[in-house]
Amino acid sequence: MKILLFTTSLLSDKDSSWLLLKKMIKQLNEHEITIYSANYLRKKNNKYENYHIIHNTLTLNTPLIAKSINKIWKKLNFYIALFYSRKLSRKIHQIVVKRSIDKIWIYNGMLTVLTLTELLEKITIPYHVSIFDDLLNNKNYKAYEKSLNNEFIKIIKNSTSLDVVVPEQKDYYIERGILQPSHQVGISYGGYFKDSSNVNLEIQSNVTKICLTGNIFGIESFIIFCSSVEKTCVKKGIKIHIYTNNNPLTLQTIKKSLIKFTNFVTIMPFVPEEKIVSTIAQYDLAYIQVPFSKEDKHKAITSFPSKTHNYLSSSVPILLHSPDYAAVSQFLKTNGLCYSINTIDPEEILLKFEQLLCLDTRKAIHKKIVAFNNKPNNNLHFNNLMKIIGA
């Protein structure tokens, strides 16, 4: 079968979503994969292993322009995406005809949804949708709610198959009447669970270093955590290091928000994806935070931080600061893979944090993580997803 993958992901080995895509494509090796990438980094054709990449540059939709017209950018961004979706749909239509494509696979987002909507007015073709951000509840798309939501719902309803991050997201679509229970739906959990990078990792008697990696979703809970544990961290010489892939504008906001904690919190230089697990393995605890706000509740329930895969691979004990209803909390706590702080009350946070400093507690979590990584069916969800996409 010939599959056309349409994505706006940055096709770079520094980008975790691209590394996941590469793994997925490798599993689909009996199919001919063509990748159509709509991003502003490159404009060229190049072959990579057994698939063909076609890059398309979006000359207007760049960070520089976004920064210069920031006040009206959110509204303008929709119209730029609408303009490009018409151009891109024509190009994709040509590729579908020229290469005799059997199925389209899209990574969802505003541009991909609008483009597929335009394309399906020209042709009838089976398509699979990979959903990482639920556009129905994504606050970044609230300005275009009516324009975008109707199209997104039609794309989901009429899809041949799709995948969502966690089962709760599928349940939500079924409850809303958007999906039938019989619809072909795979679960991604945001990636592929890796083997332990170091099963003999030595758990130190004292905690001196804690790391937070990847995108920071809802910094407010992290600020509350830092405020609660500051005195203990300073007294015991515990440092918190942040390795984030947030864009430069967001990173500046994060730095300003954390400026009063510079005595024990440091934003570290960027670490490439291939080195992030070994970097995490140098720490005593790996911290995951999920927002507690009502506005972020749906995303907490229907998303799964991709950093979780790297944390588990490192075998470092995980400190989870999250409400119990979050999908990652349900997953990690059910499997005994973390120490959970499920509150934003400063006194409770400090009490639980100091309990975690106990060596036996951290050793027990480490052992559970190693045992989890050795389970043979960890990636059954991933294998099932590949079957659905390639069906």
Describe this structure in words.
This protein is an alpha/beta fold and 391 residues long. The chain contains 15 helices and 14 strands. Helix 7 crosses helix 13. It is globular and about 65 Å long. Mean pLDDT is 85; it is low at 40-50.
Low-confidence runs (pLDDT<50, min 5 residues)? Answer: 40-50
Any idea of the CATH class of the largest domain?
Answer: Alpha Beta
Quickly give the CATH architecture of the largest domain: 3-Layer(aba) Sandwich
Instruction: Give the overall pLDDT as a whole number.
Output: 85
Strand arrangement within the widest β-sheet reads 3-4-2-1-5-6-7-8
Query: Overall 3D geometry?
Result: globular
Rg (C-alpha, Å): 22 Å
Largest sheet: 8 strands, mixed
Give a quick summary of the entry.
By secondary structure, this protein is of the alpha/beta class. It contains 15 helices and 14 strands.
Can you give keywords for this protein?
Rossmann fold, 17% strand, eight-stranded mixed sheet, globular, 2 domains, alpha/beta, six-stranded parallel sheet, 391 residues, 14 strands
Secondary structure topology:
Elements: E1 2-7, H1 16-27, E2 32-38, E3 45-48, E4 51-56, H2 63-68, H3 70-98, E5 103-107, H4 110-119, E6 127-130, H5 145-157, E7 161-164, H6 167-175, E8 185-187, E9 209-213, H7 219-236, E10 239-243, H8 248-257, E11 265-267, H9 273-280, E12 285-289, H10 297-302, H11 307-314, E13 318-321, H12 327-334, E14 338-341, H13 346-356, H14 359-373, H15 380-389
Parallel strand pairs: 1-2, 1-5, 2-4, 5-6, 6-7, 7-8, 9-10, 9-12, 10-11, 12-13, 13-14
Antiparallel strand pairs: 3-4
Helix pairs in contact: 3-4, 4-5, 7-13, 9-11
